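Look over this record as teaching material.
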Amino acid sequence: MYTFEDLEKELLEKTASKTEEFIRLFYGRGGCFEGWEFLSVDAIDSVLSIAYYNEVDEALDRQLQALFEVLFKTGFYEAVVLQRRYLPKAPSELLFGKLREKLYAVENGISFKLNLLSNQNSGFFADMKIGREFVRDNARGKRVLNLFSYTCAFSVVAYKGGADSVVNVDMSKSVLETGRDNHRFNKVEVRGTRYMPYNILKSFSRIKRAGPYDLIIIDPPSFQKGSFAASKDYQKIIRRLDELASDECTVLSCLNSPHLDSQFILDLYKEEAPSFTFVKRLDNMESFPSKESERALKNLIFTNF
């Protein structure tokens, strides 16, 4: 049984050895720590960021906030932020300290702009680190298509890896604007970069015109009301891959739904894109342990050559 004392010891030890790089100090959602499934804790440079995914008993909440104050007083953090993800709009509150005007998560020396107080999502998904490393290591000389690009983290790392061009597609203009900021801040603002604020399912002809692509990233939300449901819409993208892909194309297909497993994606490729062959599933990060791997993030690699 994982106890409060275990949590306290782990957080203090990891805090003492942290660097400016983003680190998940504790991840309960994977079900590996019974009774703590509601909690995640991140060290984001000078910020301690906590999320509750379920309502917490009032006494435990007080005990945890006392621990967060102890961590704040170590001097390793300038601010402590708590987000209650179980409430409507997932409100965040500043518990201790003061937030800098501009915040960034640092990963492998690359900085990504954050918003820790106003949005449900901060602008950076830390569990995708190994996927971003794959893109960086396989982008040299490639024309890259970044579908569901969000704040364009894949685009930034693709350029760091030597990509020739990147097309970023996301229906939200605001997240694409953050993506532009991420490119500028990391000094990879490339003339060949394109930002398409389109609904992907309704814009294949526009996306196709900018191709063909040598590296395609498909990283959709599991469910976004009114625009995308992986269970029924993912196949609409897979069946168009041959139109988008070059003769030697690699695809990173991502899925982060606890209700859809790897076989769901494998079956889609077999039925809708038989020219593509499954290569491997990328490992997940050790700092995001999961009791059931098929309920966790699934990053699958396919090629047509």
In short: The mean pLDDT is 95.
